[in-house]
Design a protein that fits this description.
About 40% of the residues lie in helices and about 20% in strands. It is an alpha/beta fold. It has two domains: about 60 residues, SH3 type barrels; about 290 residues, TIM Barrel (Alpha-Beta Barrel), CATH 3.20.20.70. The chain starts with 6 loop residues before the first strand and ends in a 10-residue tail after the last helix. The structure holds 5'-deoxyadenosine (5AD).
Amino acid sequence: MCYAIPGKIEAFDNKLVVVDYFGEKRKAYNELDGLSIGDYIYAQGGYAIAKIPEDEAKSILAVWKETFFDLQEVDLKLSRLNLNQESVSKEFLRILDNAAEGRELSREDLRVLIKEKNKPALELLFKTANFLRQKHHKNSCCVHGIIEISNYCRCACAYCGIAEGNKQITRYRMSQKEILEAARQAIEEHGFKTLLLQSGEDSGYRIEELAEIVRQIKANWPALIFISFGEVGLDNLKLLYAAGARGLLLRFETSNPKLYKQVTAGKDLSSRIAHLKEAYALGYMIVTGSLIGLPQQSEEDILNDILLAKELHAEMYSFGPFISHPQTPFANNPSASAEIILKVIALTRIIDPAHAKILVTTALETINPDARREALLAGANSVMLNVTPVKYRPFYSIYPSRAHEKESIEVQIKDTIGLLMSLGRSPADLSV
Ligand code: 5AD
């Protein structure tokens, strides 16, 4: 199964290669040795990750050529925008028109959008975001894999089911061998080209062990590796980068320093932000965002969250709903609604139309099973499938009853491809 279409190298431009996909040109950083013009490669997240033999590339492209343009047409149809709607206020339409035209919106405009409750108006907001997604990103949709390698965590965040204080869950820590086997399956058998390794803040692995795992994956299989081990510190970020990790997923959870301190049992937002800035300076692609629906979080906080993620150079945005977990101090706080997350996704697309990859989070799908489709039609263009061995998945219970928890990876892939095709999306990751 392929998630990225092979591209043909047209030219070299310093450290970049120019790659052709059925006439579309994209650029990717070249970290591979011995590439020449005319070679076929896979590119992921803006990196050339593997050379593909010409015969193999041509047969994959022959299959894709049939569907590539058909899909683009379906997507184009679904993302058409008509801002003539009598049931929506002139003011709201003016803001959406400015957004669709690529003009920067004022803070006041963003407030109007996030406060809107009227269904026809929200439909138009989502359609505007979808229009911008199509305009800037065409129909490509990232499909990455995530391996949750350990659920040990030394943190005491009040919202999180795997926080140290929860003595009722079974803890697990995958061995190096298990992680490499899960990575092998994901990359070799299922065709994933980007893998995220995630854990709680687990002191049970030495950083050298984690670096060795990244090195081993890179040495054996072609993939782009993202890490999400919490705040590991600058030196460890350097080590992991040197081992081959190129992306960092770290949510700042909330941009409100006071709220952050409250919900994380006294941690400092500034060190989280510093960590994200250091990672960016080292060359990591940044995946960040926040938890929406935390107790006492305001709409202003949420707007600030989106703006902060952009300021931190998010390559991919990850905003998910808070979901109440019975074994946490926030057990009695209500979960967020799917609607607010769709608004946040649409606003993110409007605030960062050309660059944002926006993730549909599993948490969103957990509160609304149709949310993946809805979010992909509201500005999102990225999904992550869980390739953790099924036996460990129930224990990574950051919130209860996670969507897809029991689904084999084969089923997840089949459903995802089916959905993407129905929306005219191509499961590819071609952009820089
Ligand atoms: N509901 C939703 N998301 C949660 N996370 C932790 N606990 C919850 C919860 N109860 C998210 C945090 C963290 C990510 C790995 O999981 O945002 O960064």
